[in-house]
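ok here's DUF7455 domain-containing protein, seq below lol
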Amino acid sequence: MTSPTLTRPELTAADRCDRCGAAAQVRAILANGGELLFCGHHAREYEPKLKEMAAEIQR
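and the structure came out like this:
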C-alpha cells in the first residue's frame, strides 16, 4: 500500500519571503516537513545550503 502524496498549495501574492518579506517565489520543504519561503534573491543565496540539507525546492 502506498501513502497518499500531500501537495502544498501554489504560492500566491500573499506569501512572503521568510528572510526579507518580499513576494515569495520559492518554497523549500525541509526533511523534517517544515517549509521556508524565499524571494528569488534569497532562494539563490541559500540554495546551495538547502540542497546540502536535502530540502525539496519548489519554484
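fwiw The radius of gyration is 12 Å. kinda neat tbh
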